Amino acid sequence: MTEVQPREIKILETAEDIQNRRQEVLSRYEQFKTICSDRRQKLEDSRRYQYFKRDADELESWIYEKLQTASDESYKDPTNLQAKIQKHQAFEAEVAAHANAIVVLDNTGTDMIDKDHFASDIIKARLEELHRLWELLLSKLRDKGLRLKQALRLVQFMRECDEVMFWINDKEAFVSSEEFGQDLEHVEVLQKKFDEFQKDLQNHEDKVTEVNNLAEQLVTDGHPEENTIRSRQQEVNEAWRRLKDMSLLRQERLFGAHEIQRFNRDADETIAWIMEKDVILSSDDYGRDLASVQALQRKHDGVERDLAALEEKISTLGKEADRLMDSHKDQASQISTKQTEIADNWEKLKNKGADRKARLDDSYYLHRFLADFRDLISWIHDMKAIISADDLAKDVAGAESLVERNLECKGEIDARE
């Protein structure tokens, strides 16, 4: 502290000296009041600055704290994203509620700057820094909110993909089955199941379309995981195309199996019918008399009509067998074996039919001869009885009657010859 040097006291001798001294005292008093006023103003400015600085420090500290929260990368962990979004929304509300603090500081600082505060440059720099930090916080908030929503949409997209892929993998096992039925009924059961699968396949077309729409929307919105999204989208589409191709192949193979089993059924029915007719034609009953022979011939004529109808069916089966062997090379051997079995049995049946017809004809001629022979022997005996009769006429009329009857017998004998 500077030591105040004592001044020499001047003795006031005249009125003028007194007046001058008075003016000097008053002048110094005014200077003192001015200095006090300036001092008060500076202290007030300092007080306002300290309050401003305190509030600015608190706001800056709060912003830095919230920046740490806003800068974390919790969105990279896909668990509990819905809860994280709700928490972030509450965080945004907290920041919005704190927006008034910077407005108040802005008003206070601007007022101090307008009044040429001694720390105007510092205040201005501090306000600019606070605004920068505040805008940074708002930017981080928007970015984190966006990334949380993007992460949630990505999780939802992945979940949709997982569901579609699970269904596709499950159905691939179904359509890749090597089971095509042991008989026609079994094939038809498999075809019914396949028809139900095709309906399900059509219904899931919308699911795949939805996956593609979600992928395109995410990419259009600038999702940062575009490569992951495109990769998963491609995986789903390739699996879907593969399933549809396998479905078409399964459909064709089931259709082929149905054709073959239907041919086998028709062939087995034809062979069974041939065997049934073979039993009839293998009979050694050729009739005991003319009437029974004629009855057997009528029955045989009915069998031959059936054979004529069957021949047309066998011809159709032969053409079908040729077509199936051409379109189903892997089954050609089995089809050829069945076709040969039908042809062999058919030839045997036709030969048996012809042989039985010939034997029945022989039997017919034999029994007709025997019937004619019996009729002739009976007639001869009758004629002999008539001719050998001892009846003699007792008069002319009776004699004429006997002559006439004898002539009739002779005429009948001549006719028989």
Considering the chains and any ligands shown, give keywords for the structure.
417 residues; mainly alpha; 85% helix; rod-shaped
Description:
This protein is mainly alpha-helical and 417 residues long. Helix content is 85%, strand content 0%. It is built from nine helices and no strands. It has helices at residues 15-71, 81-97, 99-114, 120-175, 184-220, 226-281, 290-327, 332-387, 396-416. Helix 4 packs parallel to helix 6 (226-281). The radius of gyration is 63 Å and the shape is rod-shaped. The termini are far apart.
Please trace the helix and strand order, writing H or E for each element: HHHHHHHHH
Helix share bin: over 70%
- Summed up, the helix count is 9
Shape: rod-shaped
The N- and C-terminal alpha carbons lie at a distance of 190 Å
Radius of gyration: 63 Å
By secondary-structure content and strand pairing, the structural class works out as mainly alpha
Largest sheet descriptor: none
**Estimated share of beta-strand residues:** under 5%
Low-confidence stretches: none
Number of strands: 0
Task: Give the overall average pLDDT.
Answer: 83
How would you summarize what this structure contains?
The protein is mostly helical and 417 residues long.
Q: How would you summarize the topology of this molecule?
A:
Blueprint: H1 15-71, H2 81-97, H3 99-114, H4 120-175, H5 184-220, H6 226-281, H7 290-327, H8 332-387, H9 396-416
